[in-house]
Design goal:
Length: 454
Amino acid sequence: MSRKYYIKTYGCQMNDLDGQQMGRLLKSQGYESTPIPDEADVILVNTCSIREKASAKVYSDVGRFRALKLRRPEVVLGVTGCQAQAEGLHLQKRFPYLDLVIGPDHTNQVPDLVEAIYQKSKKSASEVHFEKPDDYRFLNLLPDESEDSIKAYLTIMKGCDNFCSFCVVPYVRGREVCRDPEEIINEAIQLGEMGVREVTLLGQNVNSYGVGRHSEEARLKKHRSPFISFAKLLRRVADESKIGRIRFTTSHPKDMPDELIEEFGENAKLARHFHLPVQSGSDQVLQSMYRGYTRNDFLKSIRRLRRIDPSIALSTDIIVGFPTETEKDFQCTLDLLDEVRFDSIYSFAYSPRPKTTAALYFKDEVSEAEKSDRLRRLQDKQNQITYEIHQCRVGSMLEVLVEGPSKSGTTFCGRSSQNHMVHFEGCENDRGKFLPLKIFHAGPNSLRGTIDEC
Ligand code: 5AD
Ligand code: SF4
C-alpha cells in the first residue's frame, strides 16, 4: 500500500504553487494524496507569515497535530513555507515533536528529507538558508492528471528586492531571482499541450521581470538565456503556446512601463484584469511605506491602462492603520476608492512583522479598535462600489472559462476575463470551454449568466 501525504497550505498563490509542487514531488516517489490528516503518513503545514493572523495559524495547526503525533509517532510532521523560513529552529524548539522545518528555497528537498526521517537516518531536519541568487534553480514540474487541467500557475520569478517598510516577504522569500525566459516559454508550451486553458504567471513583482539586479548579473555571466522584458515575455507566451488566457500577479505600481500597458491593446490573450496593489491613498503614508510612487503616479497609470482598454477590471490591496496613518490619511484612501472605482479590493489591518523597518522603527500607534473601524468603513464603501459595477454588467456579454460545478452543485461556474465569478446552467461538457455568457443577474460577489442562443 502506498504511503499518503496531507498538505495544508495557507497564503498567496506562490505558496499554493509550492504546496502543489511538494505534492508532485511526493507523488513522483509513489505517495498518494489524502484530504484526511489521520490517514496520512506525512503531514506538511505550508505556512504564510505575511500578517500576524496568518503566522499565528501555524501554532494552532502544529499544536493540533501533537495528539496525532503522540498516537502515531511514525508520522512525519513538517512545517514548510514562509513561517518555516522566518522562525527556523525556534519552531523546532517550541514544538519538539516537529520532524521537519523547510523554507521555500528548499521545496525540491522535501522527498529526500521526508525519507531520511522515515528511515530514521535523521531524527529531525531543518533547511532554511537562502540559496545564492545565481545558484537558485526553479523547479520544472508539470501538473499531473489528478490536478486541475483547466488553470495552472507558472512561476516566472521568486523573492523581492523592494523592502516595503511593512513587508516581511524579502526576509522570508529572499532576493529577487528571475527564471530563464526559455524555461518559462517551454513550460507554457507544455501546459498548453496538456490542455491547460489559462495560466497565471507568478512572482512578487512580475512587472520588474528581467530588469532586476540578478537578471542583469545572470545575463552578463551568460550562463542563461538573455532576459527579455515582462511585456515581451507575455507576448511570447501568447504567441508560442496554446494557452487561451494569460493572467499575472503581482505587479508593483512603480514599474509600469508603456510597453506593458500597450501590450493590453495588442495581446488578445491577456485577461482584461490588472491587480495593482496601491496600499494607501495618502502620499505621506506611501512615503513611509517606501513604495516609490505617489497617489498621482498611481492614478496616472490607471488612466493610461483605461485609455488602452476601458474594459480592464482593476483590483488592489490596501492596508489600513499603518503606523503613521491619521484619520485624514485614511480619508485619502476612501477618496481613492471613489476616484478609481476598483472592481474589487483585498484589505488588511496593519500588523507589525519581524525584521521590517516599520516594526523596528515606527510605533504601531493606531489602536486595534481604530484599525477594525477603518477596515469596516473601507470594506463597506468598496462593497457598494463592487455591487454597482456588477449591476452595470447586467445585459452585457462576458467570455467565461468554465471551471466546473459551483460549490452548491446546482449551477456551473467559471471566471470572466475580468475575473468575475459567473454562474450559469451548464453541463460537464462545458468544462474547460470559453463560453460567451449573457449576464442577467448581479449579486454582491458574483454574476449569473446564460448561454446566448443566437
Ligand atoms: N500588515 C498588513 N497587511 C500586509 N500586507 C503585507 N504586509 C502586511 C502587514 N504587515 C498586505 C499588503 C500586500 C498583501 C499581500 O498583504 O497589502 O499587498
Ligand atoms: Fe512586499 Fe513590497 Fe515586495 Fe510586495 S513589493 S512583496 S509588498 S516588499
